[in-house]
Automatic annotation (TrEMBL):
Boundaries of every HIT domain copy: 10-117
Record InterPro entries: Histidine_triad_HIT, HIT-like, HIT-like_sf
PANTHER family: HISTIDINE TRIAD HIT PROTEIN
Positions of short motif Histidine triad motif: 101-105
Signal peptide: none
PROSITE patterns: HIT_2
Record-linked CDD domains: PKCI_related
Protein name: Histidine triad nucleotide-binding protein
Active-site positions on this chain: 103 (tele-amp-histidine intermediate)
GO MF annotations, alphabetized: catalytic activity
Organism (species): Streptomyces acidicola
Length: 117
C-alpha cells in the first residue's frame, strides 16, 4: 500500500532503525543522513518517513511531506554552513535513482558545474 513501509526498502529500514546511518536531522516526517558514497564534501540524503517510490508519487499523494523535504534540505544546508548547494531528486533508473524510496540529495561544499552529469 502506498505510504506504508516496504520490507525490501533500504531507506524504510533506515527509518525503522534496522540499518544504521549517520543521521544529521530528524523531524516528524523526515530523516536526513549522510550519503555513504558522497559526491561532495557535504552529501546528505533527506527522506520521508513514508514510502513512495519517487518524488512525483510522493508529491501527488502527500504534497506537504514533499514540501518538508525541501524545508529540511534548507535547514540542513544552514546547519552545514553551506553558502551554495544543490538539491537533487532523481526519478527513475535512467536519471540515476538506485533506491526507489523518494529522497533528496543535498550536495555542497565544493563548486558544482552546470549542466550536471
Amino acid at each position: 500500500m502506498a505510504g506504508e513501509p516496504q520490507d525490501d526498502c533500504l531507506f524504510c529500514k533506515i527509518v525503522a532503525g534496522q540499518i544504521p546511518a549517520t543521521v544529521v536531522r530528524q523531524t516528524e516526517t523526515t530523516v536526513a543522513f549522510r550519503d555513504i558514497n558522497p559526491q561532495a564534501p557535504t552529501h546528505v540524503l533527506i527522506i520521508p518517513r513514508v514510502h513512495y517510490p519517487d518524488i512525483a508519487t510522493l508529491g501527488a499523494a502527500e504534497p506537504g511531506i514533499a514540501a518538508d523535504l525541501l524545508r529540511v534540505s534548507g535547514e540542513v544546508a544552514g546547519e552545514e554552513k553551506l553558502e551554495s548547494y544543490r538539491v537533487v531528486f532523481n526519478t527513475g533508473s535512467g536519471a540515476g535513482q538506485t533506491v526507489f524510496h523518494a529522497h533528496a540529495h543535498l550536495i555542497g561544499g565544493r563548486g558544482l558545474e552546470w549542466p550536471p552529469g
